[in-house]
Specification:
Two copies of one chain form a homodimer. Chain A is an alpha/beta fold. Helix content of chain A is about 45%, strand content about 10%. Chain A is globular. At the A-B interface, helix 2, helix 3, helix 4 and helix 5 of A face helix 2, helix 3, helix 4 and helix 5 of B.
Chain lengths: ~300, ~300
């Protein structure tokens, strides 16, 4: 993939492995990323579901270096780099760009609320000007249920107009199809629109979208990719419905701990259960119930290993 | 003030001076802090109104060092140290504790929403255990309108019970007097309750509170301190009402830019106008209107200088 191309496909906000003492285990992260790549799924590390905002910038820089050192292709990497403080966002974005990452997924600064579109425009513009690289490709990250900061259609329009070669896409995690549809209908030139949930993958593809970046891609990558790849096939509708069975099950639990429980079980590495506060691991009864359901469904993460191979 | 004492009085979340290029100007910060101290107001640097979450941890550590080097008494310092990522909170809190700061004002991690009290308890407990110093004095920071993460009465109760010498107070910026009153009525031993607005200062003092930590203390410190000091005097009611005139004026504008506009005007340093994105400086017409009102009120920040004296 040439450096300046734009992304499409299925990406996973890779779950983050911690030790019991809450330090990061880079070996297990590499293992999960390599497995995802074998399933044709790209690496949106440091997303919401990666507990990215529970990691320091230093930890993220170190992990990016370790992923590259372990042979992960940077053209398959779309790390999350949007933080509250401008110098932090610039530092992490610069590092990711220097490593050759295909793009970055960028939250708006999310502490101050009720900020204006002008203020958000200036946030993104300052980052772009300070990084100052034509290799930088930004995918905006719209996730108002968590960030509480919306990225409006008119803000996108302004950024795309002023930085057409840099602001090249968005992940819409609003959970609101009408918002995704409005973006898809806007007709911004080669703008890559990812749905934040495979729930809307078929609709997104039918309307000219680029794919999805979804938590569930951590555990069900091949099936999600299969729908992405074959959205025009007659079986697409039924594939879409099949995807929802696993998604609906996971959504009945706190999602991040549930994903980690499933990875822990399938990789036979119980340390995957650890989360950093303020999140909590699933308790034993919830874990048992979830795993029983998955066994009933004959669910298995084929080929998942622990990163040592 | 001995190191292990608890805080009371009036504190200002000191506004943060930036240059045109958005770098921090430590000289002007020192000047503002020294002026506040002459007005009997303590230094709650890195509060919400300090644009603290628009600064990196490195910037905050450097600024704390510069404040101490400039002769600011650490026993008058209550820096904000609560961040999203556990390692960041631990690092900044450790540094503030090592410098001998009287206390730290600690936000809960604020990215992930709908987190449980157990998760928040674990966040605070991990910080306390990792810092591992009996000099650490934590003032919890309850500001749900911005952080979107509430600190419940039962969470406070648990923390005070398990860490009675460390979790020693709270700033209540809920804007909800009934919440402050419930805390004041709880009867936690020597627990220091600060209201987040001088609007409730008299009520807070009458109910056994410790004082206030308020944005407006940046520009009106002497009058707020006067009410704090003389809350039992007959004139207290009218002093409380007088405080509200300036506060109500400032609240009609975006508060942080308005405070900076007032400091800029009174110190004759227009660079005080700069804010980091996503905030925006006041435009000229808003500035003119605000300053005209203040002139009409014969408002002046007596003795404010630019930090060079």
């Amino acid at each position: 993939m040439p450096i300046h191309s734009r992304c499409s496909g299925v990406f996973a906000p890779v779950v983050m492995p911690f030790e019991r003492d809450l330090s990061v285990n880079a070996r297990r992260l590499v293992g999960q990323c390599k497995w995802l790549l074998t399933q044709n799924v790209g690496i949106a590390v440091f997303g919401t579901n990666s507990e990215a905002n529970s990691l320091s910038v230093d930890e993220k820089i170190d992990l990016l270096d370790q992923l590259i050192d372990a042979g992960i292709d940077p053209s398959r990497l779309m790390p999350g780099t949007g933080l509250c403080a401008l110098p932090d966002t610039v530092r992490l974005t610069e590092h990711a760009t220097r490593l050759g990452c295909a793009g970055v997924l960028m939250l708006p600064p999310f502490y101050y609320k009720d900020v204006s579109d002008d203020g958000l425009y200036r946030s993104y513009a300052e980052v772009i000007e300070r990084v100052g690289s034509n290799r930088l490709k930004i995918y905006l990250y719209h996730i108002p249920p968590i960030s509480q900061i919306a990225i409006s259609i008119s803000l996108i329009e302004r950024l795309v107009k002023d930085y057409p070669e840099t602001v090249v896409g968005i992940k819409d995690s609003s959970g609101d199809w009408s918002n995704t549809k409005e973006m898809l209908d806007a007709g911004w030139d080669d703008f890559r629109i990812f749905t934040g949930s495979e729930k809307f993958l078929l609709q997104t593809m039918r309307n000219g979208g680029a794919g999805c970046i979804s938590a569930t891609a951590n555990i069900n990558p091949a099936a999600i990719y299969d729908l992405y790849e074959n959205w025009q096939a007659p079986a697409a509708e039924s594939k879409q419905q099949e995807l929802m069975v696993l998604r609906d099950l996971v959504q009945r639990y706190p999602v991040i701990p549930a994903l980690k429980c499933i990875v822990a079980c399938n990789s036979n590495e119980p340390d995957w259960l650890h989360v950093r506060p303020p999140l909590e691991s699933l308790g034993k009864s919830l874990r048992d119930a979830l795993i029983a359901k998955l066994t009933e469904m004959n669910f298995h993460m084929k080929g998942l290993h622990d990163g040592t191979q």
